[in-house]
Amino acid sequence: MDRDVRVVALCGSLRDQSKTRTALAAALASAREAGARTDLLDLREYDLPAYDPDEPEPEDAAALCAAVSDADAVLIGTPNYHGSYSGPLKNALDYCGRDEFGGTTVGLLEVAGGEFPTAPLEHLRSVCRTLNAWTLPIEVAIPSSSSTVEDGAIVDETVAERVAELGDAAAKYAGVEQFPELAEDRRNAFAGAVDD
After folding, report:
1. What is the pTM of this model?
2. Residue 134: beta bridge partners?
3. For the chain, how many structural domains are there in total?
4. Where in this chain does the record put each NADPH-dependent FMN reductase-like domain (predicted)?
5. Does residue 195 fall inside a structural domain?
6. Which range of residues forms the domain containing residue 100?
7. Where residue 92 sits, what CATH number does that domain have?
8. Once rounded to an integer, what is the mean pLDDT over residues 117-124?
């Protein structure tokens, strides 16, 4: 990679042994292999009270917004909670806005205990569209997480490859709106893919 790219991952799980965090770490490793600088934004490390626009912005919220704003690409990962994304992630996203996400490349990842994890990705894609972010056509839904992710690693080879592909794409297409030549590459690379 011949340009300076920063990819961050926003983890929507607060669980200590989070499979979502494991998957995001793997995606970030792939982004680093592609030449990007990476950071994990672990919501356990941010003191974010329930978003209240009438209250002063907490210091940690300002730090989170700055980290997202400074990124060329953001990977958003969530566990599947009742068919949608997690409350902590929703709260974190409520603190951010178009100033932080507008024009930013975003990759989406979901981890579910069941077999058909889809709705949270649709919900997050809609949120990202509202924030004027550009979501990658590739997204990752990790099913049956109790057997797919074990002991801090993705043990399903097909899932691991897809997660690596997401991280690579985040690095490759980071800042795509700021790099017109990449926009052309994107159209060629994802020709025929569904991109909304």
Report:
1. 0.88
2. 105
3. 1
4. 6-144
5. no
6. 6-189
7. 3.40.50.360
8. 88
- Own/partner pairs for 86-92, CB < 8 Å, 24+ apart? 86/12, 86/13, 86/14, 88/12, 88/13, 88/14, 88/43, 88/48, 89/10, 89/12, 89/43, 91/48, 91/50, 91/51, 92/10, 92/12, 92/43, 92/46, 92/48, 92/64
Residue 177: what pLDDT?
A: 64
Using pLDDT thresholds of 50, 70 and 90, give the confidence band for residue 3: confident
Helix (H) or strand (E) holding 59: helix 59-69
In a domain, 85, yes or no: yes
Q: What tokens appear for 139 in the block? A: 């997204």
* Site of tokens 């607060």: 14
Q: Which residues pair with 141 in a beta bridge?
A: 110
Distance CA 1, CA 32 (A): 10
Question: Residue 7 in contact with residue 89, Cβ under 8 Å?
Answer: no
Residue 187, pLDDT > 60, answer no
Distance, in Å, from the CA atom of 106 to the CA atom of 66, rounded to the nearest integer, reads 16
Q: How far apart are CA 138 and CA 107, in angstroms?
A: 7
